[in-house]
Write a structure and sequence with these properties.
With about 120 residues, the protein is an alpha+beta fold. It has a single domain, classed as PAS domain (Beta-Lactamase). Helices cover about 20% and strands about 40% of the residues. The two termini are about 25 Å apart. InterPro entries: PAS, PAS-like_dom_sf. It comes from Neogemmobacter tilapiae. Keywords: Chromophore, Flavoprotein, FMN.
């Protein structure tokens, strides 16, 4: 499943080679439990500033509510999907974020975490 807040042609988007991973707990609010160094380089947030919080810290005035709702839908249903969303760095600058969200299940089949592989995208 692919969701884009606006209908951008993927052939007109260049993904950065410096992707990052965020892992969130499958508990209310989906708090971040781990980020990679690339996350801190690309967003300006240090791990200690986001661990324990949810990723709404990356949202701003132009972030699509539909894209945010798609994250919630994927987490509720356990489905995997790609979401293209306008996010904001700590300094307030905008960037397009291509997020591949997957659920992680334990041996009993219960979702315990979500992993989000993210790449900054540039419109070309």
């Amino acid at each position: 499943m692919v969701f884009q807040a606006k209908p951008y042609d993927p052939s007109k988007m260049k993904l950065s080679s410096d992707g990052w991973v965020v892992i969130c707990a499958a508990t209310p609010g989906a708090p971040v439990v781990s980020v990679t160094d690339s996350f801190t380089r690309n967003t300006g947030y240090q791990a200690g500033e986001v661990v324990g919080r949810n990723l709404s810290v990356l949202q701003g005035t132009k972030t699509s509510p539909d894209a945010v709702e798609m994250f919630r839908f994927l987490m509720r249903t356990g489905e995997s999907g790609r979401i293209v969303i306008l996010n904001y760095r700590k300094d307030g600058s905008e960037f397009w974020n291509v997020c591949d969200l997957r659920s992680i299940k334990n041996d009993a089949g219960e979702i315990t975490h979500y992993i989000c592989m993210q790449h900054m995208a540039t419109l070309i």
